[in-house]
Amino acid sequence: MTADDTGEALLKQALAGDIPALAALFSQHRDRLKRMVKLRLDRRLQGRVDASDVLQEAYLDLAQRLPEYGREPKFPLYLWMRLVTGQRLAQVHRKHLGAAMRNAELEVSIYQKALPQASTEFLASRLLGHFTSVSQQVVRAEQQIKLQETLNEMEEIDREILALRHFEELSNDEAAQVLEIQPGTASKRYIRALKRLKEAMASIPGMLDE
Hints:
The chain is 70% helix and 0% strand.
């Protein structure tokens, strides 16, 4: 039995009310969902909110809303789980940062605007990796600022496709569904965004010497 067959079997069992089957499904996708939460968790909440706590609350949401998915499965299961988890993350943002944050529950689309955006600060930080010495930390700060400037100058959809493909590790087809664009368009945008990012990194002194 393939992984897809196993997933389909577990989904049928979960829809029939089998709680262990739902737990097994969630476990299959937990690592991917955790990467998404870490990527999109507002930096101001570091140290106050743990990604695992968000996932725990999201699991309860998924259990409650699974019959809804069973009646009308508009998206592949993982993308639906990602959307529900992202909506829970948006609720966490509103709870800690105020009512002015976007109300993701009002979003009916899987489009990325329904979820908190990945911050350019986090993207730049992950792209740079980690340095050890104090002198390198100073250089790293300067490089991060330049990378953030490049990311901020990109179209929002290009930043998002970098986040989806490079950090969340979604396939091209999955990224296209999230962004509501054709797979060919998603592929072209990803290649273009990567090229621009590499050019920016090559222009930053010391960036490619690490």
